[in-house]
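Obj.: predict assembly geometry.
Materials: sequence records (below).
Method: joint structure prediction, all chains together.
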Amino acid sequence: MADSAVHGSKARPRDRKVAQWTRDYVRLPGIPDEFITPDGAPREVWSRFFDYFASLSPPEITRRFGAADRHLREAGVSYRAPGETSERAWPLSHVPLLIDEVEWQQIAAGIVQRVTLLEEVLTDLYGDGRLIADGAVPAAAIAGSAEYLRAVCGIKPPGGRYLNLYAADIGRGPDGRWWVLGDRTQAPSGMGYALENRLVLSRAFADLYKSMNAERVAPFFEAFRDHLRASADRDEPRIGVLTPGRFSETYFEHATLARYLGYLLVEGDDLAVSGDRVHIRTVAGLKRLDVLLRRVDSNSLDPLELDASSQLGVPGLIDVLRKGGVVVANMPGSGVIESRALLGFLPNLARRLLGEDLKMPHIATWWCGQKSAREEVLDRLDDFAIEGAYGAAVPGFPGPGPVLAADLSASERDRLRNAISNRGIDYVGQELVSLSTTPVWDDGKLAPRPFVLRVFAAATADGWTVMPGGFCRIAERLDSRAVSMGQGARAADVWVVSEKAVTASTLLPTVDTVRIKRITGWVPSRAADNLFWLGRYLERAEGTLRLVRALSVPQRDPGKGPQHQSLERIQRLLVTWGATALGARANPSKIAAEALQNEEEFGSALSLVRAAQRNAASLRERLSPDAWQVITQMAERLAQPVEDDDGVVSTAELTLQELASFAGLAQENMNRAAGWRFLKMGRRIERAINSTRFARQFAYDEATGEDLDILLTLVDCQITYRSRYLVGALLPPVRDLVVLDPYNPRSVAFQAQELNDHIASLPTLRAGGLIERPQRLAVALQSTLITAEAATLDAKSLFALEQQLLELADAIGQRYFPHGASAMRPEKLMGLA
Amino acid sequence: MIYDIRHVTTYSYGSAVSYARCSLRLKPVNGDGQQLISHAVEIKPRPINRASRLDFFGTDTESVLIETPHRLLRIDSRSRVAVNREARSRAADSPAWEDVREAAFASKSLGGGSPIGYVFASPLAPLEQPVTDYAAESFSRGEGIFRGAVDLMHRIRTGFKYDPKATEIHTPLKEVFEKRHGVCQDFAHVMIAGLRGLGLPAAYVSGYLRTYPPAGQPRLQGADATHAWVAVWCGEPIGWVGFDPTNDILVENDHIVLAQGRDFSDVSPVDGVIVGSRRQKLGVAVDVVPVE
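Observations (raw structure tokens):
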């Protein structure tokens, strides 16, 4: 017993600690708490948890929390608050929410029953419509929802279900029972974050996690994956996570899910309808896509039949659904069941459709579209939270709900009363409830905070399965209503704690169910585009950094290195590259600092790394966390102000080292499938262009020895040159080494050869034997370089070479990327015809 | 009255269009005081696929897929329609608007013709308090819905300026209302939003007007293009009645109905997506000629 241990004279130090925490933990009056029962004793699962916790020294606790936070930061776990442009780090509460297994089973049974009911209701609403005709559901409670998709009526959902994934927000009410606060049927979010929270916490507290016997969540994802695979109408279906893109507030989660489940991460632009199927645009042409796990809202899915202004969907998608050509999870229109207007009718529907009473109650709700309910709400207006019947907004009142009549001025109150009288169908009254609190760890103490728990259920072949855990959002304010991520809340992992040891499981399938595969020869066009530009931006950043370094070293060590005239050539190049707004004759130190880190200039190293970071952000599911981390570090370093020439040089050098380590990661760790080739091609073409430009600038027809020296430094060939030629820098040998020598990995010829190899390995579209344009240009380029001689290389031929390279880069874009001529974004026909 | 209708839509593009997927709602309604005698749509270039179905609102919708590169898309629709609707007095009796509202709220159908589909905001007809307040002036307590709707239609006709240059398809309702000008589509949306604000079912109707008026009568606005007006649900047994706020007339035998929906976005006669050109020019020519 915790109590006797606390008061016993032989109490262990850790018992005293737990006792202290318990004493300092001040519950909110009249509100139930997860840690402490109403009679003041800690619950058993929490005692076990804190008993272990107390065995850790304060520095050890700090260290482990720090490790968890660092892991989140390094993995790039983030979300975007509504209206913000940059991503935020994920605020994690380090104490998980603990739920006893026995209690959890009741929750899970309630959730399974509820989603079974909702699926039946949806099937009827979009199908036979008996519930409406019988009056079991008022037509108005459905017709008012923007998620009631008329275009979908009568379509049988391919795959057989409306709901494949379901989430419910639940909380513990004043009576100690768990209550459903809301249903999420459209495209429930939070599952990926729950997964990430679990990974982080189970790592930081591995021993504790194990000793607590927390249920694993991996089997849930496994079951869901099996189900989605089975829902398609062929054996090895291609499955995509449809995301609105990297500006979506939960983009990180979309990428996480895609990576964890092994799905493609796709945007509407990546998809095209052809025949009666949905296809993904890849560098090898259109490939059929069988299943879409959508994180785009229904109304945005098809500009042809739904919201015409949407850029996020696929024109013709609804028609493909009509013909059964694609499974969309969840089925468009499933969100209609989230309406609060429906809540009051569910208990009767459960009895009618399932022959059972609802196992888990939801917040008592009065829909004002019915006269008796409307009159009751108007009679006791102050006793209710007024919410919109169909969405987040309360019609006629700004911001998301609820509206509390008691908080309104007299005239606003009249307005609310009038609105409800006139258009009661738009409003519900909900009982005001306070939810339970759970402990958070702040400054070495435990404190209670209100929370909402999101529970997830997935369809499987054997019915619904509930994730043993979930996504817990914790409010910072002590008001136990209205919790949303955007409002500065923390998230917590959720442990379902069992008496017995649980069996470990990961997403590893059994051996006999897997067919060996080695390489997938294609990559989605948009991913190829992003990889190519990631490579180009990083290479350009490298070129800029080399220029900056070459300019700064003589400033730091006066007297050493090249003279004024040659330096001016570096400055001129930085100006034409858009790295600085200062003129070529400005102070060299200032130019170097600008070119390093002025983010106003698109060509500065910082801007280029940021651009690379944006490309990488769209490739999150394809990049290793290490690679992402290197890019983030570079951007952070370049953004830190530098003091003097020495700071410029060392920042440039450290960043160059990181660029090399990124290249190494790509070289050693990235799968050699088509995606890798695009990253390499981006680097190769940019390096070839840069080397040509350097050669034009510093190996011009009247170049001095000093100019040539700079060139050899810029292309990193000083040592090779010295070992090969005993004389100082002379024009023809330098030109040969920098431009024509196929054995020098920095030469233009070397890049051309590599580009040829990559292009030859990519899939071709024309089977007619015609050579495709990128290959034609690359072969021509290489033969130019093979047959050229250093003696005849001059300013004019260098310029022609640069033009050839630019043309090749353009041809690669036209052929492989989505913005090429072959696949333009559909434009909407306009006009009142 | 029997009409021959010719409705030609042309899109000319700045560069070749390689792909077009269109939805056409060009087939006049058969029934409801109208009889469709013949109908044909010719499309150039020739589509590789044409398929018709009834959409949610019961409108015949043709899906068309064109994969022949083209710079000009021409959709030529010809119909012959007989129209015979009963005339109503502008002062006809009808149920009180509050009762119609309750009856609509209690509707037991979600179908395309059910009034409940037309009391909520829709994409192009958001509910705005000033518009609701404006409409409320026509509906004093206990007023018959029919007379109220006639009065609202009349006030829009006299209070708003018809100006084809003032608005385009995407001009928001709020702006139309504040500036008091627009075309048939705008007036229809204003009337619809006002009625719905009061909880009354109002639908958007697209169709045609006879081009040349009978001798001695003025030519109606909107006669050389597609036209739009409002249908109001007046409770049982009256049902849906057409009001043309652009011309301040009840819909009788000069109007031919193409489609009814919540707003323009549900009934747009030609709609679609194309691949290949950013510049496009739209031409619409409509002729509605009485045969006898």
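Conclusions so far: Chain B has a mean pLDDT of 92.
To do: check interface contacts against the pulldown list.
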